Amino acid sequence: MTSKSELTTYFAALGEWQRGAGAIIRHHFALQDLGIEQKEDATPVTRADREVETFLRQAIEHRFPQHSVYGEEYGETRREGAWRWIIDPIDGTKSFVLRTPLFGTLIALEREGIPVLGSIYFAIQDQLLIGSAETGTFFNGELCRVSQTKDLSQATMIITDPRDLLPQPGHELLIDLARRVRLVRGFGDCYGYYLVARGLADIMVEPKGLKYYDVAPMAPILAGAGGIFSSFSGRLDFSSGQGLAANPALHQQILDLECRLSDRP
Description:
Layout: H1 4-8, H2 11-29, E1 37-38, E2 44-45, H3 47-63, E3 68-71, E4 75-77, E5 83-91, H4 93-97, E6 104-111, E7 114-122, E8 127-132, E9 136-139, E10 142-143, E11 156-158, H5 172-180, E12 183-185, H6 189-197, E13 203-206, H7 212-215, H8 218-224, E14 228-230, E15 243-246, H9 248-262
Parallel strand pairs: 3-5, 11-12, 11-13
Antiparallel strand pairs: 1-2, 3-4, 5-6, 6-7, 7-8, 8-9, 9-10, 13-15, 14-15
Helix pairs in contact: 2-3, 6-8
């Protein structure tokens, strides 16, 4: 088990790295040409994505040369030992390309393959979220908590892609939830999890397509804020491609709803 004092020692480094990455992002965000290319999976990548990941890799390897690093753009640098850093240099590159400032830099720290510390940084707003189950989760240095909403009919739900509300296999839970909650908004990507961690929204849900680096920080961040991140099964299953974040009361109601939907003929 990782102790509170041990994890707290990483806070200063994370803040330094995140703000260094943010300076790179803000520089590129102001440019006319973002250097956009299409990857093999048809998703965009920009010069900023690559420069940020390179910066973070170098910073981590300088400070913790014994730690492994795995990033979206450049894969894995494997070291001996229990610790590995997971990097998504710009989560929400499509928003970045659209000049919509709801993208963030994600960094998670694993111990023995389990994410134990997470961070999200929104470069344009200069907003930093760092947290773990052991330390609590902090927004710009202030402890934050998930909402206390107990009833789905009063909840605000965040999604990433509005097309996920169209009828299709695997989207039944999201569609049913959209009918039950008070409000649905499509801010999405890491911004939705940030809103849940701060208690500004109640539910964040993504039905498919998530990669490990998209959500590696979310479980420790949500746990530190008193919430839960899981797949639709209720387990921390990164292979599912699913993401569900909520406070404990709503999380259980959503799992119960998913169970009932799964039992339908």
